[in-house]
Amino acid sequence: MFKKLQSNLTKSKITVILCAYNRPHLLQEQIAAIKNQSVPVADIWLWYNRGSEPQISISDIKVACCNHNFKFFGRFSFAMLVQTEYVAFFDDDTIPGEHWLKSCLDYMQSHEGILGTTGIQLLKKTYANHVKVGWNGTGGTNEAIKEVDLIGHAWFLKKAWLQYLWYEEPVSWDNGEDIHLSYVVKKYANIPSYVLPHPQDDLSVWGSIKGSEYGSDDQASWKKKPNKHINLRNKVVKTLIKRGWNPLFFDS
Q1: Which residues pair with 151 in a beta bridge?
Q2: For residues 159 and 84, is the Cβ–Cβ distance under 8 A?
């Protein structure tokens, strides 16, 4: 589908941000998948919430080790130091297909927004009532690009948009960073969120090719305390709606 691009790495517009907490064993596979992308990346950065560098062989990437677990927001703060036009984030259970970043660059020309591998269309004024879009879509994978209320698992966006993340205090520092990001960028810059096509017969353009396997292990945050997890995300959605968020897909 795509021809491998042989560009100088210094000309790349993309910095990749990885994170590690309970899945450092997947880092080497993630890094290999990113280095194998059909468009080059300028740099790979790792935000590590354990306090010491992960005990695996890592070369050619920048590592920030924190002795406190700042959970999901730490990596977005780290990314403010990026000097490329675009920044790509990947959850620690997310392995991109070979042409994921190429697809992001292409669709950014026609659908400028936060681009992702999976997303949520909210149906009510609560997180629990939603439709999933992407590789794990409610009705299966999506063949065409779709607008959503929020993105998860992998994000591709302009670095300049990260400033909006800090315009408002998050409802919770423990969860909901994905909800908060799409909300503030839409509110302050009218920038939408889209899930890119995930055709069933072409995993190379998927943002997460092993999500079902890696995202359902015992480290998944939504599995450890499912009631607490969903209740907190419900609170985040309800509070942001009170602040002025207008999700697109509510039933009338």
Answers
A1: 119
A2: yes
**CB neighbours of residue 119 within 10 Å:** 29
Residue 179 to residue 171: CA distance in whole angstroms? 10
- How crowded is residue 223: how many other Cβ atoms within 10 Å of its Cβ? 12
- Cα 48 to Cα 20, 138, 199, 233: the distances in Å are 5, 32, 33, 24
Q: Can you give the pTM of this predicted structure? A: 0.90
Amino acid in the structure at residue 210? K
Q: Which of 64-68, 114-118, 139-143, 176-180 has the lowest mean pLDDT?
A: 64-68
What is the CA 234 to chain-centroid distance, rounded? 20
Cα→Cα distances 244→130, 166, 180, Å: 19, 16, 12
For the stretch 141-163, pLDDT in tens is: 999 999 999 999 999 999 999 99
Amino acid letter, residue 107: Y
Q: C-alpha distances in angstroms, 64 versus 20, 44, 60, 190?
A: 10, 11, 13, 32
What is the spatial distance between Cα 54 and Cα 155, in angstroms, rounded to a whole number? 24
